[in-house]
Amino acid sequence: MTHAIVLIQANRSALATLGGELADLEGVAEAYSVTGEWDFVAVLRLREPEQLAQVVTGQISQLSGVARTHTMVAFEVYSRHDLEALFSVGQ
Asked: Is the CB of residue 42 less than 8 Å from the CB of residue 56?
């Protein structure tokens, strides 16, 4: 599984609707509106690494109101959610 964090800067006109649009995309596990330089953070969980380009450049960047993105791919995942899922296999 590939995990990535996508920082998204949006046009002002898209601030009210972009969060919901991000959350509806296949591969976006969570979307947050945030303060600071970036307007949204999307957390991606993808089965195949090849899906990353499809989701970021093919879907997120194409949404109306997205001004720019910055993508960070995770090397390792240290979340309680993923650790619990790992150890619950077959139970």
From this structure: no
- Tokens 């879907």 -> residue: 59
| CA 77 to the chain's CA centroid | 15
DSSP letter string, 1-25: -EEEEEEEEE-GGGTTTHHHHHHTS
* DSSP code of residue 77: -
Structure-token match 């690494």, residue found? 49
Residue 16: CA count within 13 A, CB half-sphere: 1
Say how far apart CA 5 and CA 31 lie, in whole Å.
Answer: 10
Taking only the tens place, the pLDDT of each residue in 24-56 is 999 999 999 999 999 999 999 999 999 999 999
Q: What is the CATH number of domain 2-87?
A: 3.30.70.920
Taken as a whole, the chain contains a residue count of 91
Going edge to edge, which strands form the sheet with 2-10? 28-33, 40-46, 2-10, 66-73
